[in-house]
Design brief:
By secondary structure, this protein is an alpha/beta fold. The chain has one domain: TIM Barrel, CATH 3.20.20.70. The protein contains 10 helices and 8 strands. The protein has an 8-stranded parallel β-sheet. The longest helix is centred in the last third of the chain and has 16 residues. It starts with a strand and ends in a 5-residue tail after the last helix.
């Protein structure tokens, strides 16, 4: 069964819009984590960025005490963040590129030059790095889906997943996924988990967080590759 990891960064983004710099505020990230897990999420993702634009240090420690499934820490390769990760001991660490100017993670790591673009060189480099998992960046696929021209990006993802699997890598995917485009993504083989945040939190404004998680799980159901 294809697993869902919920990225709760955007819950923190909403809180920081009003309570930035304070040790309290709403919405409560711990409550969001508990709701997501109770609704069926098999993992919780947080991205502790160097500029602390959404997730704060206290959030990762609170998450460590709260998460009962798997804690996935997204992070850049910065010494300060690495030190926190070594103390935090999340079940999964996903290395991602960071640029201060970007709103969200815009692309995958250039491993050759492990959140990566679906490119053969990057997949091969990830395997050589000793990584156990890669997470394929689905942003280009999501954008092409929006303009109804997604087949090329879908084929890139399928080829990357096949290559990664052949090299002994486990394959996750995420970025820009929603209940509309995730059905097409089910054509990509060997996927273990999808990490989805923005569309779930956005939908939660109208139907509540638990319902938004369950809707995504329903859209993901039936995956058998």
């Amino acid at each position: 069964m294809l697993k869902l990891g919920v990225n709760v960064d955007h819950v923190a983004t909403l809180r920081e819009a009003r309570y930035r710099g304070l040790a309290h505020g709403e919405p409560n990230l711990v409550d969001a984590i508990r709701i997501c897990e109770h609704a069926g999420a098999k993992g919780i993702t947080l991205h502790l960025r160097e500029d602390r634009r959404h997730i704060q240090d206290r959030d990762v420690w609170n998450a460590r005490e709260t998460v009962s499934t798997r804690l996935n820490l997204e992070m850049g390769n910065a010494p300060e963040i690495v030190e926190i990760a070594l103390k935090l001991k999340p079940e999964i660490v996903c290395l991602v590129p960071e640029r201060r100017q970007e709103v969200t993670t815009e692309g995958g790591f250039d491993v050759a030059g492990l959140f990566i673009t679906p490119d053969p060189v990057q997949v091969a480099a990830a395997a050589k790095s000793g990584a156990q998992f890669i997470e394929l960046h689905t942003g280009a696929f999501a954008e092409s889906f929006r303009v109804k021209n997604w087949n090329g990006e879908l084929q890139r993802l399928k080829a990357a997943a096949e290559q990664a699997h052949a090299l002994g890598l486990n394959v996750n995917a995420g970025h820009g996924l929603n209940v509309a485009n995730v059905a097409e993504l089910k054509q990509v083989p060997h996927l273990v988990e999808l990490n989805i945040g923005h569309s779930i939190v956005s939908r939660a404004i109208f139907v509540g967080l638990a319902t938004a998680v369950r809707e995504m799980l329903e859209a993901m159901s039936g995956y058998n590759r």
